[in-house]
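Recall the central idea of this unit: under ordinary conditions, the amino acid sequence of a chain determines the structure it adopts. In this exercise we apply that idea directly, starting from the sequence alone.
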Amino acid sequence: MARHQRCHQWKKFGLVQVKPLKHHMVPFKDEEHGGGDGDEESRAFLLVVPPSSSYGYYYNNNNNNNNNKRTKLQLLTLLFIWWRTICCDISSHRSDICVMKGDVRTSSASSSVFLYSSKTTTHGFFNYVSSKVEEVNGDVEVELQHEKIKPYTRKWETSVMNTIDELDLVSKTENAAINHHCDVNHDVPAVFFSTGGYTGNVYHEFNDGILPLYITSQHLNKKVVFVILEYHNWWILKYGDILSRLSDYPVIDFSGDKRTHCFPEAIVGLRIHDELTMDSSLMSGNKSIVDFRNVLDRAYWPRINGLIQDEEREAKERQREKLSLSPSSEIIEEVQEEDQLIKKPKLVVLSRNGSRAITNEDLMVKMAEKIGFRIQVVRPDQTTELAKIYRALNSSDVLVGVHGAAMTHFLFMKPGSVFIQVIPLGTDWAAETYYGEPSRKLGLNYISYPILPTESSLYDKYDTSDPVLRDPESVNRKGWQYTKSIYLDGQNVRLNLRRFRKRLVRAYDHSINRNRHLHLRSQ
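Accordingly, the structure predicted from this sequence is:
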């Protein structure tokens, strides 16, 4: 990526700083900080992006600078600097993000997005003395700026980033637009991102894609077009309900749609804060992970209501059949039993097949029923409709599951519910980082259950003195392949039911008290 016009957060002011490159930009003269002849910080261009801007940065109102009012006025006068330029923030170790504002046009054939602008801007703030000049169809075109970006949120992970398609972001003089006609004109911004990489794993689909998409676009209030690199029809079908809550417009397949799409603005890349969560202090309106969950709620309820209506219709048909065959007294007893069952706290078990399965799951379920839970066992796979999983977990009081990608579905639970994560040997750090801490931020009552060596199938494979059982962290330090082959792919769990029962009783008591409190509040 070119060195000029990289945007970085400037902690001093809570703003975005655009560092100038010699001969490309005229320094901002700030007499308060030594004028334009001092060090690089005093010479830096300052870029303010207000809350309404699609870039997603906003002024820090908690700034205690004594000259706050004056600084705001000075900075706001420089807003026009950004217009018709490519501004890239490469400060995050997780992702790069670029913003193009002005006459933006796509070119899927060359994997490029072009921005057409005049060579100089108002008052001569931009001074491009060294630009690439080329001749196209007899016309001279001047390339003002050229950036390269891979719009995927695992920037630090070289192996997967090597598989991501790269985009060329090119700023040219406005006369070059004559040779690049618009086929489709849009009057709202575009957000470009990739659904390549680890897409196919539900954790990565939410953590690397859906949640960052919300973070990046929510402030646009659905007035945005999503342009996808490495487009997958199945991904669109799977997440269509959510996408419809983030955008009012059809998604564009960047590579498959050869037409030139023209936008007034483009955001290339997605902003990501942390694992399965967001930092409210970085969001306009202080949006939080609970707000994201509310979007999921609105996305899935239309489909859930349809499922409920279908089930109610089927239930009425079954009841009519029973009435024609059984005495009415038996029907009344069955209805009373169903009413009692509904009043019990609901526990959902996310069951695994293959590795990290609970081999005595059936006994655990029976024990939970004796404690007082009504149980629903869910076995999600790649084809399971997300609305059905959402319905199961949204109506649950407790979730039990073994560490793995399926634990991402804790996002479907209501704040205040209980999440019990069974943690196999060697997965403590990942279980806490990817699911434990994020679930607490959502407002769940998180209960971890790190298994003992005797509860692992590895206990039958290794000597009790082996580091695999005695010191899993030393094994993990050898590298990811050791962790994956031994602890993720090569391990099942047989719960110590007496030990695990304590977690279930704790979850049951919490659920009873919570439901009683909610009932009293509704009176």
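The domain at 346-522 is CATH 3.40.50 (Rossmann fold).
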